[in-house]
Structures are given as structure tokens and as C-alpha cells.
Amino acid sequence: MLFGKECKTTVKFTFRGGTHLNEHKETATLPTVRLPEPRTVSIPLSQHIGAHATPTVAVGDKVLVGQVIGTVEQGLGCPVHASVSGTVKEIVTRHNAQGIPIQNIVIENDGERTLHPSVKPWGKPLAQTAPSEIIEIVRKAGISGLGGATFPTYAKLQSALGKVDTVIVNCAECEPYITANHRLLLERGETVITGLEIVMHALSVTEGIIAVEDNKPDAIALLQKAVGDNPNIRVCVVKTKYPQGDERQLIYAIKHREIPAGKLPADVGCVVINAETLSAISRAFYRGIPLVSRIVTVTGDCIKNPQNVRAPLGTPYSELIEFCGGLVKTPKKIVSGGPMMGQAQWDIHAPVTKGTSAILVFSEEYDRINTYHSACIHCGNCVTHCPMHLMPNYLAQYAQARRYDDAAKMNVMSCVECGTCTYNCPAGVQIVQYIRVAKGALRMKK
Amino acid sequence: MDQNQNPAVKAPELLTVSPSPHAHRQVTTASVMKDVLIALLPATVWGIYLFGIRAALVVVLCVVFSVLFELLTQLVLRRPVTISDCSAAVTGLLLGLNLSPTVPFYVPVVGSAFAIIVVKQLFGGIGKNIMNPALAARVFLMMAWTGEMTVFPAAYDRVALSVDAVASATPLVSLKQGVLPDASLSELFFGQIGGCIGEISVLMLLVGGIYLLVRKVITWHIPVAFLGTVALLTFLFPQGDLPRLTFMLTSLCSGGLVLGAFFMATDYVTSPVTPAGRIIFGVGCGALVVFLRYFSGYNEGVSFAILIMNALVWYLDMCTKPRVFGKKRREKKA
Fold this sequence. Notes:
The complex is a heterodimer. Chain A is built from 14 helices and 17 strands. Chain A is an alpha/beta fold. Chain B is mainly α. Classes of the chains: A alpha/beta, B mainly alpha. At the A-B interface, strand 7, helix 8, strand 15, strand 16 and helix 13 of A face helix 1 of B.
């Protein structure tokens, strides 16, 4: 394949701005392990943007793996499935990481992993399946973006119908520490490719690009072999740089198309889907299994044996931490997702959700560097590194002075909140947080 | 939360919940300032070697009193004490390097007070000052103690603690009159001349400047634009009937130009943040230096040039805003 070779050799695809982070991808060499059955799971009925699901089971009901336990009748949202088989113990309201109360269905695991009869493969071959049928399969399987933003995938596909010419698989995994996608590509790379074929068929697109950062040469080699002579799919090696996995930067790096402010990837003819999401689509299509588990990178300086774990949704973090050998230091901060955009958790027993790509447990020593604060010294690091080419120093100063309209004039709404500015700030100013405050205030005004 | 709890894993009662990012580059204001101090070390050592113990004393006085005045002002104004970020020490060292080793000992003290109290703290402390404190203090001293500030010893004239030095003409005086200085070009470059403590050896300053570039403390834009503009203008318009190239190289190696280009003009607080802004800033500094050296009443122009450009930093930043990703350059503002 000519194009694939071109990608491999000379030009590395990238964007202007961003920063190279300390990768900490030590878990990339360890195989993914399946978590032994957790005792209980607590499945939140709202795990992403969109409507809250309503429970379809009652306390005391027996449920099986893949059974629908919550549905969304109207609006954006997809059904929630039982991730283990067992008995519904209680339906309680708990506060999630943001402090928002959310209904949780707590299931006591019987350890049998009995599949629900509704879990069966889609009978027809791919060529005879209509796009609308694929989108329905994706919706019914409860699949949402597993990269972290967790936008419901069926809605993404629906809005892209007829508008796109390229499907980009996001395997950049630009956040430090996380290796879940990397391991998936090594262990189940073929499911990513079959998932890509399903999406390409659904959107009638003939160009599929698998974008991998150049820090995963083993995965790149494997994928290139797996793609083989397929004329429609190619592997594209992108430069290892944060935030390469942001869809704006990824599309720009590969296709040189710039998403206009306030628009979506579909507006420039692209749709970007995370690798693990495609793997889930492939499982849903060929095996009928809805999204009931995901790969979680459990790492950080407090974890004894950092590794990737495939865990049922709803598993408490503490269960995963125990499986990885427990804590070797007193944790100070627990982060769901990567260190750049992940959310700090207040509860070590919080459940794994569709967006939990990693659980990072950091001690006080790790966190100390983050506690240095002084005034902005106008060094310009945030300006040179901003992937959106903003001037974060002035945006933060406007936000501090509550001059939100002035911040709006300097395009504060274009900020993607990747955190590159704060990361690079020698003065320790929480630039991105000031920007979030300004964005929130401007949204309230509208 | 009892249903979901796992007794095997115990977390402390309270975990830290803070906004992302949870990672940070291991570079702080203090580490940046320490890098600047390290970069100034060769020039400082050379100045002390050339001018003796009195030069060392002037530098030490500047550093000690700058830090002291920062501490006192912050205590009096009830601001957080930030002397540990080393920025006052950098200001003090730069001021010391900009003084002649023969100045009376009250001059470094008054200069430090002016730099730290008036120019830095009264404008709001680190990050808020409009002008470079060390340069503003130097200009203030030049005006208040013109005589004392312009007596320079000759090279290797290791000034005794109390003895008055014999003034020697600086290269800039000669250049202004359109004649070549007594010192040869190599003497200028390696620093075998009289002058301020830190500005004499171009070589030592370049070593420090390259260190800052390698450590990514500064970018190339300001020094290259600054020195390039001076080089171009002095090459095009030599004074008197001196050969162009000689005049250009002598101009580049004279006075505080290299010190200013690498260490003063690149001061974060008082320089633009955008690459384009930095280039315009450097070009402006260079053009003003040549203009002031040619036409003003003073022999040198670096201090005034940088201070004037300092005042324009905000406008340069606003004029050179990068085009935001996904936006057109001239989009009608809503």
C-alpha cells in the first residue's frame, strides 16, 4: 500500500502547538487481565451526555449479563445493561464525581456470568445490513465513546450520515499513563478493524484511517499487517504529542482540515471514533454483546502492580485497586481518566463507567508539584503550546477580573480545555480552570 | 455507600479533588530564575576577575539589597513573601552588572531600592511591572549620579576598595565621534576593556545566552531580531568614514548591547508573548538603540530602547494575536 508506506516513512502527521509529555506508559508491555467477578456492581443510569435512563427492573429481580436494566424513551441516550448476572439489591441515588445525584442499580453478583437470551449475533452479513439497522444495533448495545468524552455513538453516526467521506480511528492515546487502547490494538486489533468496516459501511464511506501515535511501533506494525491489502483502510502514524487525540487536532494532522469554531467533525467530512468503541461495535454486531465491560488502565505511584484490567461496568474502583495488588502508599488523589483531562474522584469506591479509561492513584509526593502557585510571569509558554492558538494568559487574567466579555472577544469559547497551558505554566496558575469559569459564566449569560 | 465498599482497600477520609490537569511540568518560576542566575555567572565572574574585589562587592550589595527590599516591601504591604522565587536576586544581579565597579557604595543600595520598591512592588510585584526593574533603576541612577555612573576603570585595573579610579574612554564614546576605539575587536569580544561589570565580555554573555536558549528559558526571537537590526543599521549607516563591517562589529560588541539583548530585553514580564510580537519588539529595540546612539545626548542607548519597547508590550501582544484554530483572521466580532 503506497499511502500507508508514505505515512510510515517521512512526514509525521501533526499540528502546531501542544506539548510532549512524560509518557509513563509502563503498563504497555503487560497483557490485559480480566477482572475476577466483583461481588457487587453499582451501575449508574446516567454515564454520559444525554437523558437519564429510567430503571426497568425492580429490587429483588434476577438479571442476566446483557439484560436491559434502564432505558431512555426520549431524547439523546442509550439503554443501560446489566454487566453481571445476579440479583438487583437496591436502586439508590448516589453522587457522581461532579456531585450530581444519579440513580444507581446495585446488582449482587452470582458469579455465573449467564448471558441474557437477547444477547445474540445480528444474523445478516454486513453487506446486507442497512445503515439505519447498524445505528440501531449500536444504540441498543448502549455504546458511547470510550475515549473519555462518552458521547453516545449512535447519535454521532446519525449526525454524520451522508456528510462524511472519512472515518478516523482514534488510537492516538495521547494522555500519559493510559495504555488501554495500545493493549487493545495488540491483543484484539482485528476487532478494531472489523468495527471500522461496520462503521464505514453504515456511513457508506470508502476511506478509513487508523491514527496511531509513533510511540506504539509494535501496534503500528501489527495493524499494518492486519490491514494488509485492503484498499480502503490505511494506518497513519501521527507524532506523539499532547493533545494529538483531540479530534480537532487529529483531523487537522491527517487531513489538514480545520473544524470551524463551534462546528463538529462531520462539518468537515470526518468522523472520529475511538478504537475501543469500534471494538465494542464489532462485538455488538458479530456477537450481540452490548457494552457491559471496558478496559481500564489501573496505575499511579500508589498501585502495587499497575496493569490493564477488563472490568464489568459498575465495578467499584476499590475492587480494581485490590486486584492490582492494593495500595503501597497513602493516596492523595484518585483520577478517572488521564492526568491531563481526567476527573479527580472523591470516593475510592466509585463505579467504573463507560468513560473510565484509567484509574490513576497518586500519592502526595506526586501531587506536590501541582501545589506551586505564583503570579503569571508572562512567559508565553501557554501561548506557544496552545493547540487552539489562543492566548491563555490573557484569558485567565480576564477571567480573574471577571471581564468575561473581553475573554469572549479573545475567543475563550474556542478553548478545548486540554490543560496544556496549565501543564506548562511555570507560575502554577490554574489557567484552564479560570477559562472554564469564564466559559461557564458566558454560557449562563446566553 | 456501604453496598459498594471494599474493606480490603482503605483510602484516607478525604481525597484531594481538584480540577484537571493533574500533571505539571517540572519547571517553576524559581527554576527559571535560577537558570537566569546561572546564565549570568560567566559574565559576573569575568567582571570580578577583571575589576577585582570592588566589583564583587557592588554585585553582592545589589543582590542582597534587592532581596532585602523585596522582603521588607512585602512585609510592609502585607503581601505574600516571594523572595524564594529568586526574581529579586535576578533583578539585583542585573543591576549590579550594569554598574561601574567604581560607583560609591550607596549607589547599589539606592538603585536596588528604586528597582524593587518603585518599579516592581509598587506596580504589583512579580509579573505586574511594566518596565524592567534593573534597567529602570540604571536609568534613574544615570540621571541622579551621572558623574559617578560614568567613571569606568580600564581593564585589569583592579579597583581598590576606596581609591578613585582613573576614567577611561569607553568604546561607545569613540564610536559616537566616528572614530574606532583604542581597543581592538578581539579585545572587545573577549572583554579586555573597561566598562560596566557585566557588559564587557561578549563571549561570556553569549555563553550565558546560549545556555538560556538551550534550556528553553528564552526563545531566539528577541535576541536575533535585536542584534540583527543593530547589525543591519550600523552596516548600512556607519558613522564617520569607518569601514562598514568594522563599524558594525565594533558596535555589536560595545556597550551593554549583548547583555541587553539576551538578558534584559528577554525578561518575561516586560516582553511580548507571541513569536511575531517578540520579533517586532526586538527590531524596535535594535532600531531605537542605533537611533539613540547616533542622535541622543547619551553615548549608549540600550537602556532607553528596551524601556521604551517595554511600554509597548501590551499593544504588540494584541497586534500579533495568533489566528485561533477554526477561526478566520479577520472575523467580525460578535
